[in-house]
Every structure is written in structure tokens, then in C-alpha cells.
Design a protein that fits this description.
homodimer; 221 residues; mainly alpha; 11 helices; 2 strands; elongated
Amino acid sequence: MRMAELSRVSGVPVATIKYYLREGLLPAGHLTPPNQASYDQSHVRRLTLIRALTDVGGMSIATTRAVLSVIDDPDRTVRQKLGATIGSLGDLQAGAGADKTDRADRTGEEHVQAAKTVDDLLERRGWRIERTSPARTAAADVLTRLDRLGQHRAIAALDRYAEAAEVAAETDLDVVTGIEDEDELVETALVGTVLGDALLAALRRLAQEHVSGNRYRTPPR
Amino acid sequence: MRMAELSRVSGVPVATIKYYLREGLLPAGHLTPPNQASYDQSHVRRLTLIRALTDVGGMSIATTRAVLSVIDDPDRTVRQKLGATIGSLGDLQAGAGADKTDRADRTGEEHVQAAKTVDDLLERRGWRIERTSPARTAAADVLTRLDRLGQHRAIAALDRYAEAAEVAAETDLDVVTGIEDEDELVETALVGTVLGDALLAALRRLAQEHVSGNRYRTPPR
């Protein structure tokens, strides 16, 4: 199909498609005579993925490009792709927002303390996590900010948040278990992680409304 | 203190502080003779809050300004502030990323179906949620994208994600329960919701690594 049709089918404006092509998020079309680009279902699917990651997942164009380039790399194994996309995602996402000042902060006393709090949590729960796992740093980053804001009640509730996270993670693993096609597995893990954050955030707000209503609503007579 | 000291104490560069002042995120300093602006601990605290929401929470400057203006409004009750910041946050955040095409999509058949899936979930779990709650739409938005990407396994696991969200929400309510100061209550709820999303995301990645290791690692001999 031509670009106009790709735009109609995907619902993404032509100018935006051209932008994704320039930025390397969307692979070029196949050149057909007389020198026109032609697009297929793989382009439609890629556009749907890009929009989901950026619109709902809130990922920047730079982060999305970095993640997609890993997924597209034929020289990486599935394990590497899973590690590089899912494992590093927190770091890529956090890195997009954090400036040099904040990165430098990670050597400070308060961040060392936060990292210790994470280590203690992992030990209490028996979670075996690689020393270099970016999610360790991401968790410590959040704890540092909570501490600076004096949110000690939230920090004290860390174990219960970890319990909620474990229920989500068990479900995540169930969702990918049994997928044999490697490309499908990597995409499912990526989408599940990024859109899963958005889904959990929305469900948490709904659950807050429910729990809050249960605790504070006047019971019906 | 002068702006140079505010920068040193808060760790935020002077140029960034000036940007927040221009954008209305940070209240102006008190004018002291001879016509110089003076800042105090409330400015340090506000800068810490802005950086936490933008860096770790990934909120845009526009969304942060909208949320802070609600918090600062003396004419709103605590209940209104909680509703407008926490309740609308999903919508404000989603609205920042979604363009007109995506908003129009909400009237489409696939979004109607996703909204029905959310309604059914709420009924199964006995969650009583306002018809106009923005989190309903946010959840349906994510389900629409998952459906478009063919992620039916994730959609089928919705109840278990809701279970994880309920554990988090119970904890959220415990964290704010007993806070009597109204400003502190509103800020705790705001920070807990926004940084809580980031904390849950990091903990979920750690839990994924743990669960994945437990299921696939060769047991030690």
C-alpha cells in the first residue's frame, strides 16, 4: 500500500508517519517502480506498537527508538532482547527524565541509604536479583525522592507494595509462558511491561476509589 | 535566601528555577529592599516536589502546573483537591500523550467493547466506581491498545492485575489514614499516587526477575 493508505488503515497522520520514518522508528517501505515506497501489514503493526508505547506508555521517541532497535537487531538472542528491553526499560525511562544533577545524586549519602533499604527488602522477600539490575537503581531513586519529601509512611509500607508487585509479576510470567514464536514473545513482554504499568496505574486508581468508599462511605440503612 | 542559595540548597540549577518561575510552577519570592527576591523553605520544598513529579513521575511541565494550581487553590476543599489531583491524574497524564485522533477513537466500536470489559471487571470485583471516574477511561484506553496489538493473554489476566492493584490501593489508603493536616494529606496522596506508580513499576521489574529465576533457573545440586 501507499503511504496515504497506511495512514488511513493505521489512523496515524501522514506527517507523523514521515516523522517516525525520519527518526528510524518505522522501517522504510519497499521501493517499487516507478520509484515509489510501498508499505505492508508489518508497517501497520509497527505503527500500532509505536503509538501504544508513546501514547499510553508515555515513552519518549528516543526511548522508543532505543527499545525498537534492540528488538529489530537480528544478532541478538531472545534472552538478550528480553534483558535489554524489559530489564533496561526502567533505566531508559528514568534516564529520559533525569538530568546530570540527579544522576550525580546517586553517589550521595541519601541514595546509598535508599539502596540499602532496597537490598534489605530483597533479602526479606528472598528475591534473588542481579547486582547490576537497573530496577534496583530505579527503586532506590524513588525511595530517595520519597525520603526527601518526608514521605516516611510510604517508605514504611514498602513490603506491602512489593507484595502487590509480586502478584503482578506472577501474572506477567503466566501471560508470556507458552509463547513459542520468539518475536511474539519479545513483543508480548515489552508491551506487557510498558502497557502493564499503565493498566496497573489505572486499576490502582479504581481500587483506591473502591477501598476509600468502603472505608469512609456511610453504610446504607 | 537569594536565588543562588536556593539553587545550592535544592540542587536545581538557577536557569531551571527561573523556568519554573516563568511557567508558574514555583511561587515568586518575597520582594525585599532593595527590590530583590527572597526565597524560603517553602520554595525548597516546592522545588523538591516539582523535581520528584517530573523526574521520577515522568509528568510534563503542563500537567505538573495543572496539578499544583489545584493544590494551591485556597477556594477548594480537601475533598475537591483529592478528587481533582488523584482522580483526574490519570486523565491529565493520558491527555498529555494522546492526540485528537486517539480521543476520537473513544467513540469507536473497539473502545466501547473495552469499556464493557472494564464494567464487567468492576462488577465481578464489587468495586463501586463513579460513572465519570477518569480511571475507567484510562483502563479502557489501555485495553483498547492491548486488543489492537493482539495481546489477548494480557486482557484475559485482567482480574489478577486488579487483585495486585487492590493490594496496592489498600496500602495507599493505610499510608494516608490518620494524617490530620490537610495540606500534608493532599501532598501525601499526590506524591503517593505519582511516585507510587514509579515504585510499583520498579518493584514489578524486580519481582519479574525473581519469579522468572524461580521458574526457569536450574535448581542447585
